[in-house]
Amino acid sequence: MLFLSTVWPEPRSSAAGVRTAALLRAFARAGYSLSVGASASPNTASEALEREGAGNPVTCFSVPLNSSAALDAALEASSPSVVVFDRFTSEEAFSWRVREKAPQAARVLDMQDCHALRRARARAVEEADRKGEDAAAVSAALVAQIDASDRDAIREASAMFRSDLTLVCSPVEREILSASLGAGLAKAKLVPAPLFASRPALGPGRRPGFGARTHFVAIGSFLHPPNVDSLLWLAGRRRRPDKKKGKARTGAAGPPGDGGGGGSGGSEVPPSTVPIWDLITSHPGTRSAELHIYGSYASKSAAAAEIHDPKRGVFVHGLAPNLSPLARARVLLAPLRFGAGLKGKVTDAWMRGTPVVTTPIGAEGMAEEGGEEEEEEEEEEEEEGREEEVEVSEDGRRRGRKKRGSPLLLPWGGSRTSETASAFAAEAIRLYLDENAWKEASEEGLRLHDALYFTPRPADAAVAAVDALLTSDTSSSSGASLRSRRARDFVGASLWADSARATEYFSRWIELKEKDKEKKV
After folding, report:
1. Of the given ranges (48-52, 81-85, 496-500), which has the lowest mean pLDDT?
2. CA nearest 355: which of 425, 433, 286, 414?
3. 14 pLDDT band (50/70/90 cuts)?
4. pLDDT for residue 218 is more than 60
5. Residue 218: which H helix or E strand, with range?
6. Exposure pattern of 468-480 as b/e (b: 16+ CB <10 Å)?
7. Are strands 414-415 and 216-219 parallel, antiparallel or unpaired?
8. Which of 78-92, 329-343, 422-436, 503-517 comes out lowest in average pLDDT?
9. How many of the other CB atoms lie within 10 Å of CB of 393?
């Protein structure tokens, strides 16, 4: 199995890196020999990958963009039966050459998260800010839909259609994609592959209790626009959007946006917004509390410099050497206004028994079963054909609603319903001061971590789906073989027509241009 990316996975820097490393471990356990190729130059991340591996040795290849010779060498050396692209931009850059040189290899797209959904939500938040309707920003993001007029949405969808299989990180995004892209994308092509924890939750003797903890904590890479936006909302500092960073790049040049592969460059916090942190510290019980923020690439971020404000009790520390600060803090704050995918910061906090206060965006898909709601026979007969919604809230406060047949929501390890600054601050204060509420949320988070993210179960579907692609038994219950699946995939095949291969030809043109330069030199 060969993983191809524009960057080396960095498990200590982002949830995307954690997820890729976990996928490598899962396939190593399943008996696959592993290789990783990246267009980035070799660095400490690639050295760590080769040194530490994933249970089995991992071979790393440098595969610069628009260099078919380097990719050919990696394909020849690894001889893969499966090639995994770690974002749609990687699929654009490399899949055409993989298809040409290793046609027998199954091509799998790992979405990390749905970039098109994240971008749609970012636009909704920016529009709410522009209108001065910042209190409605999260609500607007929740109802935002993937827009077919967005060029990057079409690029992402095309990569999914071209691939033999697509790994999605939550049942929510699987449903959204299936509904948005319609019958043209077979649901069998969309396989849940969530975050995977490498170890169980900390035992009672290894995690401090309520009285031994103090202060609030927030974590997230400063290269990821949703994280930057959330911290600006939390701390109340202002920063204008970086239009260059928010602008999508095209061709095989790499992912749009910064760090997270697309989205806004960071929304300006409107002057009318009351900072969440000021609301939290206005309460007598939390007046002396501090907010400690940890995130990779903080030293290179203008936003981090603006947010750091010791006089207000806000401290930006950069990348933490480990996640022990989560076990010392009483509550994790994650006021995400837009985004997609699953949040590694939430599972990290739960593993250490730390309750999480977030928005419905931050909680989306984190505590949902893949199964569907069971309906009583009588009710099913009476309600057949209707899309009546049913309440699924467990916290007794704000009710969420879901349609019948959608994934079941499970209780949450903290609070997940706040959409405004005042509501978010109130929940943060409640969990910080109420020991009984804190203990209940802590225990629930620990249970969810082990039940949903540590067990082998999260990886089972992804490994089984890839295994099924490689079988020659077309009558197997797990699905059709790779050859028969491709024979029925007219949409995917049509996107390999010459007129739909602009990325490939653009890449070929750059390569020839570079070779011409070398000859002249």
Report:
1. 496-500
2. 414
3. confident
4. yes
5. strand 216-219
6. bbeeeeeeeeebb
7. unpaired
8. 503-517
9. 15
Residue 481 region by backbone torsions, left for phi larger than 0, else alpha for psi between -120 and 50, else beta: beta
Q: Which two tokens stand for residue 418?
A: 């706040």
Predicted local confidence at residue 350, as pLDDT: 96
Q: Which band of pLDDT confidence, cut at 50, 70 and 90, is reported for residue 441?
A: very high
- So what's the pLDDT on residue 511? 87
Contacts of 442 (CB under 8 A, 6+ apart): 210, 353, 354, 355, 413
Element (H, E) at 415: strand 414-415
Helices (H), 41-114: 44-52, 68-78, 88-101
Cα separation, 103 vs 81, whole angstroms: 9
CB 264 within 8 A of CB 303: no
> Above 50 in pLDDT, residue 368?
yes
Mean local confidence (pLDDT), 427-452: 95
Pairing of strands 190-192, 106-110: unpaired
- Candidates 25, 22, 17, 24; CA nearest to 45 is 17
> Region 172-188: what's the mean pLDDT?
82
Distance of CA 65 to the CA centre of its chain: 24
Highest mean pLDDT among 283-297, 383-397, 505-519: 283-297
CA distance 25 to 28: 5
Minimal CA–CA distance to 295: which of 267, 275, 323, 268? 323
CA 52, 259, 173: angle at the middle one, nearest 5?
A: 90
What are the b/e assignments for 230-263, b being 16+ CB within 10 Å? bbbbbbbbebebbeebbebebbbbbbbbbbbbbb
Contact 38, 5 (CB under 8 A): yes
Quickly tell me which residue has 């109340």 as its tokens.
236
Residue 299 CB contacts under 8 Å (≥ 6 apart), including other chains: 318
Tell me the C-alpha to C-alpha distance, in Å, between residue 103 and each of 264, 326, 415: 36, 46, 48
Hey, what amino acid is at 261? G
